[in-house]
Structures are given as structure tokens and as C-alpha cells.
Please model this.
Amino acid sequence: MTATGTSEGVQRMLADMREGVLQGRVPARIFNDQEIFDLERDKLFSTAWCFLAHESEIPKNGDYVVRYIANNSIIVVRDEHGNINANLNMCRHRGNMMCKSEMGNASHFRCSYHGWVYKNSGELIGVPYFKEGYEGQLDKKQWGMIKIRIDTYAGLIFGTLDPQAPSLDEYLGGFQFYLDIYLRQGAGGSEVHGPPDHWVAETDWKICAENFSGDGYHTPVAHQFGFHLGYFPSSGATHSEGWAVHIPDKGHGIGLGHTPGMPPFFGYPDELVEQMRGSLSAEQIEVFSKTRTAVGSVFPNLSFLIQPFSLVPGEPGVRFCTMRLWHPIGPGRMEMWSWCLVPKDASDEYKEAAYKAYTLTFGQAGTFEQDDFENWTRVTKAAGATAVRDVDFPYVMGLERPRLADFPGPGYAVSPYVTDTNFRNLWSTWLDYLTREA
Amino acid sequence: MALNVTGVDRETRESIREFLYLESLALDERRFRDWLEAFADDAHYEIPVRVTREKLSEWELSPTSRIFDDTKETLDVRVKRLETDFAWSEQPPSRTRHFITNIIVQPTEKADEYLALSSCLVYRSRGEEITPSLFSAQRRDLLRRDGDSWLIVHRWAALDQAVVNAHNMSIFI
Ligand code: FES
Ligand SMILES: [Fe+2]
Model:
């Protein structure tokens, strides 16, 4: 063991991985390992920009939700001036948890231990026995709740524990172009349909983040029933068509699957398509109008999916959009947070239809979701076995594939959609964080 | 809260209890087609998302978010899926046991429809895993008389956990 607590075995594995990942090899062990989990907590989640909440979850002054960055509980709240704040969910006096519910509305937070009172922005304003106990000597300004640095993009609120982290804009590094298909579904943007589903699974968060950064390869098999029953407006034969794009050295990636002959922006109501022609750039329209599946991950653990889906065979599909957070809670163990995003300006009928499509496919009881977690749980179990300590997985798909010269969007684009190109970038970025000097 | 008994006749009450037991047996024996027949054509099957809230909050069960939100048609989709060879989440199938207790039958405005409240505990075992998933729920079923038996017009079930400790919900409550 070294001073940082990482064994030589893991240090060597990470050192070898630097070369390996470029040649298409990734160690299985990273997907279920206590030391890797500790490194992720200390080096990745302590410096990256991490998703906290969508602005539409806290529309009114005083609205709050409790969220996490690694093991840190954070209150995300809209204060009395309408500004968004993120504070550690901990009383500054002796550390009692301030909010014990997932969401609510409060102008003040009062600690249930000794009664310190904070404004919802985090300032300490009330201390019992201030005169008698502290002789009025406690500097309340110094002992407010601990602030977390935040920034937003198109409704998404991100936080970072690192005051030195680059701006969110720089961190996203052009991936905003792709996020717009999920976040600007119409002129008014997107909103959550309601509170997220959440559940706990014996699955490593990274397997899911990788899958959503464009794993079109698994769809025809893992979700074979969808093709088989004909509930899915695409076919196995043309499934590999489309693009995969990533932002080099940033870890973000997206898969854009195409179905030949599909009408532009298929599955959206006409009035939304009209609006998107105004809210998206010509380049974005070129990329997204022909896209059937847009499945992408913001490094490290926020993902999105847009997909047309028909509840019943023969009926035209409706687009649903899911946003999901793969929150790590232990090696090979995660808590899943899953939202449905709907276009704010759409009709209630469309929002309901999109939400129904979401619950049937990717909600907690969703038929696609069920099979994904079944697979991911098994992958995680396998990766934790001692015989797998020195085993690599092949990430060679698309290794020689040329970068598209005339792709209209930013980043590194290849075609077809089915490839490991995005994943190699994901793992090399992940490695950069884990091996960074403190 | 008043604890008045509702005065539904014994025969009706017993018949509804037996129907609920038969229905859960069909689930536990994986006779999903038989199970589907227990639902009326206009049936609604829903499980709202539970959110941990402060005591005086307006709601604890989300008015908009649902884990299941199915019609008979979409339940049929789920069953058709289970009948394929590709429903990997149930391959091999979960072993479930539904424990239905505390059944209370209440009359409704309609003479041939009754409300059945029940407690439901579902034990699910998968593969060689020694730790089962447990789903505890309150159920409220609107039942319509159908000859000698009953049809479920509306099943509403609320899980007692806000964060479900199961990697998926590939079973029915
Ligand atoms: S811990 Fe909060 S007031 Fe003492
Ligand atoms: Fe999948």
C-alpha cells in the first residue's frame, strides 16, 4: 500500500491501462473493486461536475430537493430571491442532517438537535442561547451551511466539490450541442414530469454510464423482444446505421441511431417540430431530424435517452425522453435515479403519452430497463471475482474507423453507430481523473 | 377514524377474498394469461412513486410519477413479452409468493362493484441469490361482478419503500 492507500496491484493495473485503452483493452476489475471505488470517490467525484437536479424540480422560491455527490448529501434549494443554492445537508454546529425528506418547500431550515436556524440560502441566522451561552461572541457569518459550487446548463444544475474546477461550459466542452436534443425539445425547453423513480441495484455505475454513451450493440439482443413483438419502430437489419460522437478527453459520448426512411423528427407532435426548427441550429437539425435513438452520457454519471416507442403494435410511436443518474453507493452497488423529461410547451395529452411510453420502457418497471439491469448485475458480479483480477475486455470495435471529416456537430464522430470509439474515450478520461496527482 | 364495519354480506366478502387469492396464485404459478383474464377490458393498473416528505406535506405518493401505469392492453404487452424467449429479466423466472392479508371489502355507488383493500407482501427470489427482494404494499382494488367471479377494474398499489431495493420490477404486485 502507498500513502494514498492504493495497492501496488491496482496502481500497476491503472498504469498498464493507459496504453491498453488506446489499443482497445480495459481491465474487468474496474467494474467491481473496493480500491477503485475509493479512488473514484476521492479523485473523480471530488473534482468533476456532477449532476444535482433539474431546475423544474424546484420551480418556486423555497423549493428544495436533497441530492448527492458521491457520499455527500446536498440540499439544492431555490432561495427567497429565486437563486439556486446548493449546501451540504449538514448543520454546522455538530453535523446533524438538516433535511430528512427528499423534497419540500421551506423558507428556513431549523436543526432538530440544538436548534440553529438557517435561511434557505444557507446563512446562519438563529442560535439558541446566543447571549447566555455564547455571550454573543459567535460570528454567525462564519458558521453558515457549507456551500457547494454550482452552475447550470439549459435547466440542468451541476455541482462540483472542487473550487479549482474549470467552468461547467469548459467541462461540457461542446457536448451542449448534443444535450440540446434532450433539453430544448421545443421553445420552452424541457421539464421533469414528476419526482424520479429510484431504486438500488448491485450494479457498478460505470457499466450503465458506458451503455448510455452509445451502446447500440446490445439493443438487438438485450432488447430482442422489442423487435420480435414489433413494438419498436426500427429493425435489427438497419440497426447499426447512424453516428457515434464523443468529446475527446472530456468523456462525454452519444450514439445517434438512424432508421432509413423515417420521417424527420418522427414521433414528436407537429407544433414541437415547428418550434425545434426555431430553437435548434441548422447543424443540430441536420443531426437530430434523422435520429431515431439518441443515447448519451455526460461524464461521469448522467445519461439521457430519446426514442420513439409505440405502446401497441401498428400505432405510430411517441418520443419519450429519460434522464438518469447512476449514483455510486459502493463497489458494484448503485442507486438509480430516473426521470422522464417532457417538452414544457407540449400539450398535456402528449406529455401523458410520452410519460406512459417511459413507464412501459425505461421506468422502474420498464420492459427495456428490466433487461438492462439483469445484464448489468451479472456483469458486476463477474467483474468482482478474483479469477478476473487480471482479465481485460476487448474495446477494439471501430479501432481503425476513420473520423468523419464533414460531420456537422462538434467532437469526434464515426459511423456506423455501433462502435467502441466513444467508450475508449470514456475510459481514458476516467483514467485521467483516477491517476491525477492530488 | 371510525372503525365501523361496512356490512357487506358475508357471501360477497368471501367470494372477493377467494378471488384475490386465486388471482395471486395465478401470478405465483406464472399463469400470466389466466392472470390477465382477471382484468376488465377498461382496467387500469397503477403503482405511484412514493416520495419521503415532511409530515404535513400535501402528498407522499406522487400525483404524476408512476412505476406502473398500465391498461389491459399494455399489461397484455408485458405478458406477451414474458411469453417470448427474450424476457431476460425473467429468465430464469423469479419465484414469487404473494401474501394477501387484511382484506376489507366496501360497497361502492354501483351495486355490482366493490372496493377491496388489502395488504400485500411479495417475496421474490431470483436464481441462487440468498437475499430475496421484498415488496410490501397497500392495495386498493375496484372489483366488478362477472357472473360467479370478479373482474379487476382498477388496481392501485402503493409500495411502502421510497427507494426500492430490487434491481428491477419485472414482477407484478
Ligand atoms: S447539531 Fe445542529 S444545532 Fe447542534
Ligand atoms: Fe439497454
The two ends of chain A are 17 Å apart (CA to CA). Residues 361 and 367 of chain A are 5 Å apart (CA to CA). The interface with chain B takes residues 100-104, 193-203, 222, 224-225, 228-229, 231, 311-312, 335, 340, 355-356, 359-360, 363-365, 367, 369-371, 373-377 of chain A (CB under 8 Å). The longest strand of chain A covers residues 318-330.
